[in-house]
UniProtKB/TrEMBL annotation:
Superkingdom of source: Eukaryota
SMART domains registered for this protein in UniProt: DEXDc, HELICc
Pfam families: DEAD, Helicase_C
Keywords: ATP-binding, Nucleotide-binding
Cross-referenced PROSITE patterns: HELICASE_ATP_BIND_1, HELICASE_CTER
Organism whose genome encodes this protein: Trypanosoma congolense (strain IL3000)
InterPro entries: DEAD/DEAH_box_helicase_dom, Helicase_ATP-bd, Helicase_C-like, P-loop_NTPase
Protein name: WGS project CAEQ00000000 data, annotated contig 1849
Region (Disordered): 1-50, 77-190
Single annotated GO MF: RNA binding
SUPFAM superfamilies: P-loop containing nucleoside triphosphate hydrolases (SSF52540)
Occurrences of domain Helicase C-terminal (ranges): 480-652
Ranges for domain Helicase ATP-binding: 269-431
Length: 1104
């Protein structure tokens, strides 16, 4: 806590705030910048108040127009600026003075008074003469009021100089003064001027003091406010003194030895040996993430350890650090495994993995995890996959299917409920950790005292919704604190600022670039920042530029930031929040601004004090902190779980069974939406469906082993019958590839059309963030002041690559292929040329590489499931993309059709956009994300299909989109490629017509076509089914020779794969080339009489 002490001469810089008043600014270096003005005065009442800030002289100076003389402070500021300009113009001023003196000497006998204002040029000469004159001269015979009027530029009566008068000393010293060198004459005149100013200042100070004393005697309110101000000023100075005393004890950092064990490893190893489950609850920075896995690895050569982290950054960083401690390269005994990147082999005995990768390993090795010790680090975060993983490991331990030890590590975990969850197992808890370095805690009241700001929010603030004014007030106080630290601490002591979300990170970054006084090294840290950027920033050391990390909650990780001494915590976070009553929040959980938990405060505070003493600044009153919840709500309750549900179907026939035995469980609404999504995509089929027998794939061994014990355990919890599902060939395909179900459908469409390589790339692109950026790292300095221009330049670059279509996806696909061409042409020696190519096109090279890595990962997983006709030459793929771009656009639309929007209001420019759209299958309004570059502008009446949707308030924010001008084209693409349709044939006076229904979630749309179009659609869907059946046979009979497989196809009356794919592409092209001539209209249809089913069936004859 910030204490109180004796005053000091210099105080902290006063931060300024909207809604945060500043009590003092007199202790701040005048060069410090702030975000507002701290010297506002109530000119209406004309009284000084403590809350207005500044000392009494400042106050009186600002009221000068109402007094008899001008404020001394304003005058001194004006004179000070004149001094600065005079230094650079001394030579010119000296020549001007000589000329003026000569003219004055020529008129030495003149005694008349000037009564007419001089021309402006003459006034300038006279002004220069007055500024350069000595203590004597015309100014001596001038009253104070005359001098003030003259400074204001008004004409006054002045006595003309005679030949005996002029600049410099008078009397006997005149000859000595004239004989001086010109430089010494200037110094003499300067000293005389300073003396004159000193006398004037003393006079004005005395006048101000008399006014102050009079007010103190006659005005009780003035006296009370002044005394309050003095108390606040003293408190601020005392807080500054205390901070300086604490900071003076800062140790010298030894970066070569930043990790030291603060936990009793022998005791921990003994507990692990004697128990099934061990909780390790120690302070952050105690070394458990590195020390415990390393100690277990070194127990013997037979140990195989896995340690999970919730985030990729921490996974790679800690693995690298442990390998360094063992003096070996990462990938030998110590390795890491994250999505799309694996460093290690079968000889690796200590794996650092993301929690999701461990779940996939458990699915592939049912009931027998291939590890002797499983460590779940940062366990308090409890991501949805961790909930399932813990449930599976608990079952294995209870049924004794494998011999392993489970270690759960966290700094903030409450173990009471978890000990009951592991009933029947031997459970122990280790809770010993002494802090290695002192941490000084400052809460909101201490911070406001330190920076001179007022804060009057009640302790019940945490019970309120975080609105914009409150956010602004806290942010402004944080800015004042940053100014203070930047002015008073050493540059090599870094600052970590926790902000709620990416938007706040970018806003604070822009403010720092223009408002901070000393040089800084700003490091944004959020989900869109490449891992390599953070790793490079952590290693970077600077003696003259202070490093400032601007981070979201992503920085709450097991990473030591050795140079961070100060943590500024806004105690806010943006996390998904689901409302049962709002379907849109279940489909796309919105990021809601909310207060963090006490556990998160402990995590953020633990970023410091690891290698040296630290300072934790909590922007919340200490009384309000006690009202925070102990822990966050389990993320599984506020997350979309369609991908997790699909993976869980490898375990049991309904995800409800596995979710029912988890410690934290998803909402029923989330499970229902997930199952609906998977059914619409054709990934699963209800076991009661008559078509299920032919659609289901062969039982996988993993389900056989897991299902029995999961269902036995679930029957003790769920006492009602639940539907059972079978997963199809499509579901099995999507289970294997490392993308979510919607992008995964693009891979399936690629197999249907023979465009496997292109659509695998499309899946990687839609699963990643766009590499186009309005402000690439290399162009920050050029574009920081022209955000609109930078955005338009990036969008123009996208339009050059979109293949003539209005699709962000196609633009990124072409950019990736062109990037591959650049890599091939320039080779390893042309890295600089490739980098320049990316910069010129507003592309992030790291994000392009990330897309290529994911693309290769998808191909790697598919290779073990089904043969892939891969096209490796980027030039061939570019030609293919240009020709097939309309088909690619159609397939990307259908994959994300559940997110489709219809534009009801269009905009004009990036800077002034009013574009608005309404959901087609979800009743919600949407607007474009103006922070994300796009090659298209929304136009009224057209269909927009975004890849990324996030709910903000009552509106969706849409990005990474494709635009379709023709409604017929949109509806036709749905009818052709949607997995399951209901339809019926009707007739009227004009003949037959078809009515189809398309349903997503709870919304059903009806489409009417003419008879020829309806029959053509059904025929095309049969061709898709034929391709799917060939793919299924190819997957099941990979051991057959070509002639044997051809014979098998003949037995099922199927064409060879390439012929069937060619038929699909040809028919699709015919449809869309003549789309305007087709009859496809959306209609109202109230009757429940659509009893025919059209499904893209992959059922094989004779299967049961």
């Amino acid at each position: 806590m910030g204490g109180k002490g004796k005053g000091v001469q210099k105080g902290p810089p006063a931060g300024t705030a909207k809604g945060a008043k500043i009590t003092s600014n007199t202790c701040v270096n005048s060069n410090n910048k702030s975000s507002g003005d701290s010297s506002h005065v109530n000119t209406t009442e004309g009284k000084w108040t403590a809350s207005q800030g500044g000392d009494v002289l400042n106050w009186l100076a600002q009221l000068a127009p109402q007094q008899q003389s001008r404020g001394a402070i304003d005058y001194l500021k004006k004179e000070n600026s004149q001094k600065k300009s005079k230094v650079s113009k001394s030579a010119a001023s000296a020549r001007l003075v000589d000329s003026t003196v000569s003219k004055a000497t020529a008129s030495s006998n003149a005694t008349s008074m000037t009564i007419v204002p001089k021309p402006r040029s003459s006034q300038n000469v006279q002004k220069a003469q007055d500024q350069c004159g000595g203590a004597s001269g015309g100014a001596e015979g001038m009253s104070s009021s005359q001098a003030i009027e003259r400074r204001r530029g008004a004409p006054v009566l002045t006595k003309a100089k005679t030949g005996d008068e002029g600049d410099g000393p008078k009397g006997p010293k005149r000859d000595e003064y004239v004989s001086m060198p010109r430089s010494q004459q200037y110094l003499s005149r300067h000293e005389a001027k300073a003396e004159r100013l000193r006398r004037r200042f003393e006079k004005m100070t005395n006048e101000a003091q008399k006014c102050h004393e009079e007010a103190m005697r006659t005005d009780p309110e003035y006296k009370k406010n002044f005394q309050t101000y003095q108390e606040l000023q003293a408190a601020q100075q005392a807080a500054h003194t205390t901070f300086c005393e604490q900071y003076s004890k800062q140790e010298n950092l030894n970066v070569t030895n930043i990790i030291s064990e603060r936990i009793d490893i022998p005791v921990i190893l003994d507990l692990i040996e004697q128990h099934d489950v061990v909780f390790i609850c120690t302070d952050t920075g105690s070394g458990k993430s590195t020390s415990v896995p390393k100690a277990l690895l070194e127990l013997s050569n037979d140990t195989h350890v896995v340690s999970t982290q919730p985030r990729r950054t921490a996974t790679v960083s800690i693995a690298t650090r442990v390998a360094e401690l063992r003096r070996e390269a990462v990938g030998e005994d110590v390795g890491y495994w994250i999505r799309g990147d694996k460093c290690g082999d079968v000889q690796t005995r200590l794996w650092y993995m993301t929690s999701y990768m461990l779940l996939l390993r458990l699915l592939s090795t049912p009931l027998e995890p291939p590890f002797t010790h499983i460590i779940l680090d940062e366990f308090h975060e409890r991501q949805p996959d961790i909930e399932v993983t813990v449930a599976l490991l608990r079952l294995c331990l209870l049924r004794r299917t494998a011999a392993f030890k489970l270690i759960l590590m966290s700094a903030t975990l409450s173990t009471e409920g978890w000990e009951a969850y592991f009933a029947g197992l031997k459970v122990a808890t280790y809770k010993q950790s002494e802090p290695k370095h002192l941490i000084h805690d400052y809460f909101m009241e201490d911070i406001c005292t330190l920076v001179g700001a007022e804060y009057n929010e009640p302790p019940s603030i945490t019970e309120k919704t975080v609105d914009f004014p409150l956010m602004e007030k806290h942010t402004t106080i944080a800015k004042a604190l940053l100014l203070y630290l930047n002015a008073y601490v050493h540059p090599h002591h870094a600052i970590l600022v926790f902000l709620p979300g990416r938007a706040q990170v970018e806003e604070m970054k822009m403010w720092l670039e223009t408002a901070i006084q000393k040089p800084v090294d700003i490091v944004p840290w959020h989900s869109a920042v490449d891992l390599s950027v953070i790793e490079e920033a952590i290693k970077r050391r600077g003696q003259y530029r202070q490093k400032i990390y601007l981070a979201t909650d992503i920085a709450e990780v097991s990473i030591t930031l050795p140079d961070v001494v100060f943590v500024i915590d806004l105690v806010l976070v943006k996390r998904p929040k689901v409302s049962k009553d709002n379907l849109a929040t279940v489909l796309h959980p919105p990021l809601v601004m909310q207060w963090i938990s006490k556990g998160s405060i402990a995590q953020r505070r633990g970023r410091i004090g690891r290698v040296q003493q630290g300072f934790y600044f909590c922007l919340l009153p200490s009384t309000a902190v006690t009202n925070l919840s102990d822990h966050i709500q389990p993320p599984i309750e506020n997350s979309g779980i369609d991908g997790l549900s699909l993976q869980c179907l490898q375990l049991v026939s309904n995800p409800v069974a596995i979710f029912s035995i988890c410690y934290g469980q998803p909402l029923v609404e989330s499970i229902s939406i997930a199952m609906d999504t998977l059914s619409n995509l054709g990934c699963i089929i209800n076991r009661k469906d008559p078509l299920a027998v032919g659609e289901r794939t062969s039982d996988v061994e993993t389900r056989e082993k897991w299902s029995r014990i999961i269902l036995e355990e679930a029957t003790n919890v769920v006492h009602a019958d639940i539907d059972e599902y079978e997963y199809t060939f499509v579901g099995r395909l999507l289970q294997l590839i490392p993308v979510s179900p919607l992008p995964g459908m693009l891979v399936l469409y690629g197999f249907f059309t023979g465009l496997e390589s292109l659509m695998i790339l499309a899946a990687a692109v839609t699963s990643s963030l766009s590499p186009f950026s309005a402000d690439p790292l290399e162009q920050k300095r050029q574009t920081r002041h022209n955000v609109v221009g930078a955005m338009e330049a990036a969008e123009n670059s996208m339009r050059d690559m979109c293949c003539g279509m209005r699709s962000d996806i196609l633009a990124v696909m072409k950019a990736v292929l062109l990037f591959r061409v650049q890599l091939a042409e320039n080779g390893e020696s042309g890295a600089a040329a490739v980098r320049r190519w990316c910069i010129d096109r507003h592309l992030s090279q790291d994000k392009l590489k990330s897309i290529l890595d994911l693309e290769q990962h998808i191909k790697y997983e598919l290779a073990n499931f089904i043969p892939v006709h891969d096209v490796s030459d980027p030039l061939v793929l570019l030609t293919q993309l240009e020709k097939a771009s309309p088909i690619v656009l159609v397939m990307t639309n259908v994959a994300f059709v559940s997110q489709a929007l219809e534009v009801v209001m269009e905009g004009n420019t990036y800077a002034k956009t009013k574009e608005t759209a309404m959901g087609i299958f979800v009743d919600v309004a949407a607007v474009p994300d103006i922070h994300s570059p796009s090659c298209l502008r929304w136009q009224e009446g057209e269909i927009i299909v975004p890849v990324q949707l996030s709910l903000m308030g009552k509106k969706m924010i849409a990005s990474f989109s494709t635009a379709i001008a023709s409604h017929k084209q949109f509806w036709l693409s749905i009818l052709l490629l949607t997995y399951k349709l209901m339809y019926a044939v009707f007739a009227d006076d004009e003949g037959e017509f078809y009515v189809f229904s398309v349903k997503h979630f709870s919304t059903e749309r009806y489409l009417e076509t003419d008879a020829a179009t309806g029959r053509g659609i059904l025929l095309f869907r049969q061709k898709l089914s034929a391709v799917g059946k060939v793919l299924r046979l190819l997957q099941e009979h990979q051991d057959l020779y070509d002639d044997e497989f051809a014979e098998l196809l003949q037995g099922h009356e199927l064409k060879p794969l390439h012929e069937a794919q060619r038929d699909v592409v040809t028919t699709m092209s015919t449809f869309f080339n003549n789309v305007e001539g087709l009859t496809i209209d959306e209609v109202e249809h109230d009757e429940d009489d659509l009893d025919e089913v059209s499904m893209i069936s992959l059922a094989l004859h004779g299967r049961s």
